[in-house]
Design brief:
about 90 residues; mainly alpha; Arc Repressor Mutant, subunit A; 4 helices; elongated
């Protein structure tokens, strides 16, 4: 096989895609989606309350004070701003 595709790479890619497919199926389970949406609503309320109590706070403060990652806090703050909730 002097040309073409590396079979090892193809197998690994296939395994990765199957694993990703199983993860996506878990997320689309209606019971899990309801729990996720409920959790996200609670988390958004915590961010809103925190920013009302500490209007000078930035995303790093939100992350540190609420135990979120920086990217998680950035996502939530941007989402809440986009939805005009803050």
């Amino acid at each position: 096989m002097d040309e073409g595709v590396d079979p090892t790479h193809m197998c690994q890619s296939l395994v990765d895609k199957v694993a990703q497919s199983k993860q996506l199926m878990a997320v689309t389970d209606p019971d899990i989606m309801v729990l996720f949406e409920s959790w996200l609503d609670e988390l958004e309320e915590e961010v809103i309350t925190h920013l009302k109590d500490h209007p000078e706070s930035g995303e790093l403060d939100v992350a540190a004070d609420l135990g979120l990652s920086k990217s998680g806090a950035t996502f939530l703050v941007a989402k809440l701003k986009r939805e005009n909730k803050i």
